[in-house]
Amino acid sequence: MKHRLIVNFILTSIIIAISTNSYDILGNPPITHFTRNDYKNASQFWDACQDQNGNVFFGNNNGILIFDGARWDHVKIPNHSGVRSLLATSDHRIFAGAFNEIGNIRHNSKGYYYESMMELIPAEYRNFGNLWGIHEINNTFIFRSFSYLFIYQEGRMAIIEADDQFQFGGICNDLLFVVDSNQLQIININTLQTEIVLSLSEINNEEILKILPTSQTTEIHLLTRQGSLYLVNLKFNNSSFIQKLATQTFQPPYISAVQSKNGKLFIGSLSHKMHSWIPNGEYYTPARHYSNLQDNTVLSIFESKEETIWALLDKGLDYFDPNSFLTNIFKGSSVYDVVIFENRMYLATNEGVFRSSEKQSNNSINQIQFKKVANTEGQAWSLQVVNGILLCGHDNGLYTISNGIAQKIPGFSGVWKLYPVVNSKNEYFVNLYNGMGLISIIDGEINPIEFQLPGFEESTRDILTDESHSYWVCHGYKGVYRIKTSSNNRRIVGVEHFSEQDGLPSTFNINAHWWNNQVVFTTNHGIYFFDKETNRFKRHEKLNALLGDDLNIRQIIDKDGISWCVIDDEIAFFKTEKMDSVIRDPFLSLKGTLNQSMECLVPYSNKGVLIGTSFGLYSFDIEKYEKTTTIQPGITISRLIFQIEDSLIIHHIPDPLNTITIPHKATNIQFFFNAPFIRDKATIQYSYWLEGQSHQWTNWQSEASVIYPHLKSGEYLFHVKGRSLSGEITNTAVISLLVEPVWYASRIFLIIWTLSGITVIYLIVLWVRIIVKKEKAKTQLEEKKHQRILEIELEKIKLEQERKEILKDKEQLESDVVEKSKDLANYTMFIAKKQELLIELQDELNNIRQQAKSDNIRSKILNLTRTISVNLNNQQQFKLFDSNLERVHKDLFDLIKSHYPDMSSKDLRLCAFIKMELTNKEMASVLNISVRGLETARYRLRKNYPEIDELIEKSKNMS
Fold first, then answer.
1. 19 burial type by CB count under 10 A (0-12 exposed, 13-18 middle, 19+ buried)
2. Residue 476 needs a FRET pair 20 to 30 A away by CA distance; which of 27, 233, 338, 509 works?
3. Is residue 646 part of a domain?
4. Of 726, 741, 756, at which residue does a domain stop?
């Protein structure tokens, strides 16, 4: 409760900016100027109309210009005369009136063209001069020249000839009014009868410029070229003067006028450009003077279907939206603050302070001129009304402003603004570049108390109350301070410094703001608040969820349920209670124009906000914005241009639902599009997407066309949408495009190719079947061959395995033979040794027996020698030996027997011994013969068998 009382005190102690409930702000809408450089044609314009697609037709001295919102087309009249009148009819025709020419403008796939209707007019009436007006009543069309009225209905043309001249013609309440013979008349278009309303002498012979309806069908208003407004009673045929429509800066003669759909009256003059007037009962009050038109003479005024205004000038065309929600109040300087004081607007700028030259009235601020306040040259930061005194914070110090003159309060320099002291009704802090001063304002007198409070010397540009004698101060680079003043506010007694360690994301670009009954701190990374329980800064979850924390929120102001904020370099707003969406689009045109870190947003009531920029002051009206955003403007794909070799093909698109077919040879395929119903035509941007070639929309661009050097054969969908920097967004237009295939890929050839392909496929299938059959037979043969080869190979493998086994067995046998040969040789040697031993033993026993004296001993020795003799001649043992010898030396015996089949076993045994390479002595021992006998046996062997040595040697090699 204490904190809320402090805040209420602050808000009621100082009136900043503007009285929020007192004024409507009417600035100048942006005006777009079109010159000869744009439309490349004659610059004097006479009349305009608009078709159902939003295209605007202008009559000028060289025919008709058509503007689709992006490009200009030109249609000439057959006799090359200028077009003075145009009408868009209820059945979507465009009638044109020129010099001795009546016709209509048509459109087909080749573009716009003129079709004359002169054959409907008898030859004697065809020299009628210029047609100055075309009107419609219930599908009846009236063409007016000075000499005739041509009434066209259902293909027939009726003609009324003037008694003098038809100097004026107009429609009001479905009645046709004309001026002829100095009389205002009503003509019945069915009976062609004339009724006189009044003589122009009753209105001082003034020339009628416009007939305006009133709230009564029996009454009309007459606006004259002399600026008079009269009320005419059609029942009693009398008139009364209402008022003179003129101001100090806008004077007759008037030459054009139009009443808009919302009742505003726009008047164009011969020398003073254009002015608008607002209806107020029977009267009209002045609204805006459009002094920034490019020419003084406004020949005609046209209101479009989207309620924008075209000024047809003697030299050029101007266009603006009178209902623009973003208007300009002041141009030329950077605006840092604005305030209304004594019914004048004051601006703080980089060049000083400016104030409006005229006092405002009727609770309305509109179209004002500004003059610089004397003695304020240089950078002015703030304007505040305190206790009925206007004060200015200035680079040079603190000023009071009265009657357009500023006076400096001595002792201060580098002043940002004033800030009220809590619990001290008449005291104010002076926020300085380096600290704070203190003043009191009592009964209109300003008394400096302290030029700088001791204890704090940082900049105090951004300051907010925390609690009694405690204030938040934000520094752009050093973070946040909380300072505490003494009880009498004469000095700083406490300073707390907060930085990253206290929960802030950084110390840069921190600002304190009062939002929704609390202090919030904006940073480069979201919005924070101070939690007194933890003595730390915490993220404001609701605001960060809505605004994001990746951009710098540099301002946030809550006023009458609407929160205005600056996000980086863009302005946005949202409903404080709902917090459902952030609206930025209407401020796109001001992107990048704000004074960084010194943004000026001054809400007024719940209607809008004043915006200070580096180029001036703007006003945003939220009510007008919400009205204009209820209708979504359309966008049109108007034409397609492509090139085939050296020829340029132009294809206008009357019906976007039909698919456009282009040859495959087409190059430089260019789509043209436009958004004629967008109100802010000067800032239109487009985004497009060619489905079938790309997968995403392009970035926004101002060019109203796109060119593709070449497209492959196939089907495409071209999508395009538009927007303006005022926040308008169109719907999406789509058109289907078919790029034909090459001739050999066309439909007929595709059929031919298909049939040929089927035939070829059939023949190929048939041929393949034959080939497959042959190949199958060949394969079967090959398989049999391969099977036979496989069998042979298997047989070879088997034989090889058997051979290997045989060889292995042979090797084993040979190994066995070798082993047995060795065993046999050893056995033979053993027998030889045994025989030798036995012989020696026998000989020794015989010697012993001869020497023995006892017969018994000689008998026993004799028995022993006989036993030895028996063993030496053991035939069974020799048979066994021969048998083993034959098995071991089978190859030798087989070889010898193949040559000498009759060789005895004794000789075969000798051959084996020779192969075994036994010595003669060893052989003789084994055979139980003498060495001499052995030699004789070997001699006889060689003699009887001459090849025996070769056979033995051969047997050795075989083994």
1. middle
2. 338
3. yes
4. 741
